[in-house]
Design goal:
By secondary structure, the chain is an alpha/beta fold. It has 3 domains: 184 residues, Thiamin diphosphate (ThDP)-binding fold, Pyr/PP domains (Rossmann fold); 160 residues, Rossmann fold (3-Layer(aba) Sandwich), CATH 3.40.50.1220; 197 residues, Rossmann fold, CATH 3.40.50.970. The chain contains 23 helices and 19 strands. The strands form 4 sheets. It has a 6-stranded parallel sheet with strand order 3-2-4-5-7-6, with helices on both faces. A 6-stranded parallel sheet has the order 15-14-16-17-19-18, with helices on both faces. Strand 18, helix 23 and strand 19 form a beta-alpha-beta unit. The protein is globular. The chain binds adenosine-5'-diphosphate (ADP) and ligand TZD. Adenosine-5'-diphosphate (ADP) binds next to helix 12. The site of adenosine-5'-diphosphate has 24 residues, from helix 12.
């Protein structure tokens, strides 16, 4: 082609967005169509991208967030403007809260009309609304800036503490044309979007000195540690130091939960007793009682932990968030743990046998009690009876991904079901958000190609239940197990006036399995442990979309699960 002809050849915003995504290795888009996204999605599919469309934007957004967490590359979600954007926003905010990299891209109305509030189709100042809810927000007004816009979005999502990014693309942008030559030159392939950040040598030394001085040391691994993919370094550190560790929920499996140094079964004991605690990719937020009070062996609820704190984190402002941090180690976990491994040296002495022995004793006692509880084949099924099946299943298929949401369903599953491989457990995370179930499951199945078992309370499942159609449409190996106890938390709530249903009560004996059948998938009602086991076995073996309606005793569990204490009136009631 002559230079003249080349100069005349044009492309448009639609194709430039696709080219920019592909250039940066992004091959999957989670979306829900509508103007101007429909054409974009068709073109992206025609250009060989994987386009996965949902029934509600929140679920597409949750899928993008899980994709980001599981791959270490930003998950991409496309929505239409105003209502579609707002539906996606919860997922964007949740991704940011959980430190998952994702980019929400929404079409938007023309700036001129939005700024004068002249009433455009789905008019909304989306950039302003998104900004406080994510890590960064950008708008691209000219097609030649698409490359820069996406590069900034990718860097913002991945570098430092990962998070959600909003990218605003006004409808007019997609149709803008420009010469292919100019377009090509405008694209940016992001180099090293999550650069290593090395810790300062003196910070490493300070941390090691403190850890050495401990007589009851403890490591807490959080989902930042799982995200960091420093699995081998972390294992080496734990095993070389001999320090007991506690995995936070999504860090379960980073080392197998059956590891002799895992202190999960003695959680209360180690938190209350430890004198030095090293946090690795875990925040001292509500999930760790803010590092204060009785949980941490302190007298009063506001009193800081007895333990001195080492914090390994990529965010330099995370230390001292709740209580004093004696030794912050700032950098990416891979670099930090490698540096700590080097610094341990040969003169390391493993923790006192009095400490590890006391932990082992408590673990044994608690694990024996749990084994007894799990052995009970209760009818109707309790949470534990049903979860014993999930526990066996995961032990046999440690490569399967477990998605988990609900209250009791979440709390019991977390403490009952051992994980054996990193990044195999996805759950409600930092906010305890309901509704991640089907979005996370779709992304997990696509990214891993492995079976996904989604263990959801009946209320939790309802938030994203319509996506069973999506699971059937893409024929994904997802087995949804609905823990059906007829309501939110439990099914026994009664309206004292006897008029409409009580706040937490659902229709009794609902046939959730028929929802999957409606779209061509497999639906099974399982009232016993044997039926549940058979249904899940079959689902995992066949890889067919399956929903198992697991019938749980409606009296089982407690209101709010294990966070009853945060619920002022429920805290006064005696748990069942
Ligand atoms: P959990 O809920 O499992 O306790 P959190 O979400 O509270 O975990 O904490 C995750 C922490 O991990 C955040 O403070 C975040 O800054 C940190 N983090 C995420 N990725 C990395 C990384 N690659 N290196 C270091 N820290 C990281
Ligand atoms: N809305 C959102 C988005 N997130 C929430 N966490 C809640 C509401 C409040 N909530 C919980 O914290 S757990 C839960 C709700 C509604 C559901 C519990 O009922 P379930 O689980 O049936 O899913 P269990 O296992 O039966 O207790």
């Amino acid at each position: 082609m002559s230079t003249e002809a080349q100069a005349l050849e044009t492309t448009d915003g639609f194709h430039l967005v696709i080219d920019a995504l592909k250039l940066n290795g992004i091959d999957t888009i989670y979306a829900l169509p509508g103007i101007p996204i429909t054409d974009f999605l068709r073109m992206a599919q025609a250009e060989g991208m994987k386009v996965i469309c949902f029934r509600h934007e929140q679920n597409a957004g949750h899928a993008a967030a899980a994709h980001g967490y599981l791959t270490g590359r930003p998950g991409i979600c496309f929505t239409v403007s105003a209502p579609g954007f707002l539906n996606g926003l919860t997922a964007l905010a949740n991704a940011t809260t959980n430190c998952f990299p994702m980019i929400l891209v929404s079409g938007s109305s023309e700036r001129e009309i939005v700024d004068l509030q002249q009433g455009d189709y789905e008019e909304m100042d989306q950039l302003a609304i998104a900004r406080p809810l994510c890590k960064a927000a950008y708008r691209v007004l000219h097609a030649e800036d698409i490359g820069v816009g996406l590069a900034r979005a990718i860097r913002s999502a991945l570098s430092g503490r990962p998070g959600g990014v909003y990218l605003d693309l006004p409808a007019k942008l997609f149709a803008q044309s420009l010469s292919t030559e100019v377009a090509r030159k405008s694209l940016i392939e992001v180099v090293d979007p999550a650069p290593r950040q090395l810790p300062a040598p003196e910070a490493v030394e300070r941390a090691i000195d403190l850890l050495k001085s401990a007589s009851k040391p403890l490591v807490i691994l959080g989902k930042g540690a799982a995200y960091a993919r420093a699995d081998a370094e972390i294992r080496q550190f734990i095993e070389a130091t001999g320090v007991p560790y506690l995995p936070m929920s999504m860090a379960k499996g980073l080392l197998p939960d059956t590891h002799p140094q895992c202190a999960s079964a003695a959680r209360s004991f180690v938190l209350a007793e430890a004198d030095v605690v090293m946090l690795v990719g875990a925040r001292l937020n509500w999930l760790l009682s803010h590092g204060k009070g009785k949980t941490w062996g302190a007298g009063s609820p506001k009193e800081p932990a007895r333990a001195r704190i080492i914090q390994v984190d990529i965010s330099p402002i995370e230390p001292d968030s709740n209580v004093a941090t004696a030794a912050p180690v700032i950098g990416d976990i891979g670099s930090c743990i490698s540096a700590l491994n080097r610094a341990i040296g040969s003169g390391w002495s493993r923790p006192d046998a009095a400490w590890t022995g006391a932990i082992a004793e408590r673990k044994d006692k608690n694990l024996t009690r749990m084994t007894e509880t799990l052995a009970k084949d209760s009818s109707p099924m309790t949470f534990q009876t049903a979860l014993s099946v999930i526990r066996d299943m995961v032990r046999e298929r440690p490569d399967a991904i477990l998605v988990n949401e609900g209250a009791n369903t979440l709390d019991f599953c977390r403490s009952t079901v051992d994980m054996f491989e990193p990044r195999k457990r996805l759950d409600v995370g930092t906010w305890g958000i309901m509704g991640i179930g089907m979005g996370y499951s779709v992304a997990a199945a696509l990214v891993s190609g492995k079976p996904v078992i989604a263990v959801c309370g009946d209320s939790a499942f309802g938030f994203s239940g319509m996506e069973v159609e999506t699971i059937c449409r893409y024929d994904l190996p997802v087995c949804v197990v609905v823990f059906n106890n007829n309501g939110v938390y439990r099914g026994t709530d009664v309206n004292p006036r006897g008029t409409e249903a009580a706040p937490t009560a659902f229709v009794k004996d609902a046939r959730y399995e028929m929802m999957m059948q409606a779209f061509g998938g497999v639906g099974v009602r399982a009232a016993t442990r044997t039926e549940l086991r058979a249904a899940i076995d079959e689902a995992v073996a066949s890889g067919r979309p399956t929903l198992v309606n697991a019938i749980i005793d409606e009296n089982a569990g407690t209101e709010s699960g294990r966070i009853t204490s945060l619920n002022p009136s429920a805290a006064k009631k005696k748990p069942a």
